[in-house]
Amino acid sequence: MRLANKIALVTGASRGIGRAIAFTYAREGADVVVNHAASAAQADETARGIEAAGRRAAVIQADVGDKAAVDAMVDRVLREFGRLDILVNNAGMTKVCPSIDVPEKDWRRLIDVLLSGVFFCSQAAARAMFRQKSGKIINIASVAGMGAFPERAAYGSAKAGVIELTRVLGCEWAHRNINVNAIAPGYIKTYIIEDLIAKGAYREDSLTRRIPQGRLGKPEHIADAAVFLASGESDYINGQTIAVDGGFTAYSYLESWLQDKHDQ
Description:
This protein is α/β, with parallel strands linked by helices. Helices cover 47% and strands 14% of the residues.
């Protein structure tokens, strides 16, 4: 087991990518704290899955955009588990809206959760990790922070900020034996993507035509990368963002060329 006896805190772990990471960490030997903002029943379900894998679990409700709530959450983790080895900043939300029409409250809320929340959680966790002289922080960014996604001004700006914050903290805290890295998921088939497809914001066939591997990703693909970044195998990687996207960000040629290859 690559994470044997480690203590991990995964924000936004009630479903989707966060749940997949929590389950995979448990299978790799970690005890996992499940954070959620307003999904108690789903968070409890995640905790039961962790316990079914033979590991300890705890559920903590906290809005990551609220610094006081974040500090209280990390304090509780330390009281109940004694240490914090791994933080995964996964809590998220999205908003699709023409930039000219984005309400101020939506802009501020997305920045609070997606960017400020990553900083607040990292800062609180790092205080414990400084004392331990070790720790792994994994930020869930997005390919939307690496290129322009129209009508996602706040989301893309926040995720680009997460990528830069990852660089800054990775460099600043490296001498403390803390690794800070990020994963930039591409189009992963979670409840968010399924909802956007259902609302007509995306067409699945249009997405897959633009992905060299010709399919949407699964939450488990992100979880596998998160295990690697939390393990000793990544000890000499710091301040980096790994795109897990089926080749989406690497590809810049014609969709028709890819479609021809997919049809062969």
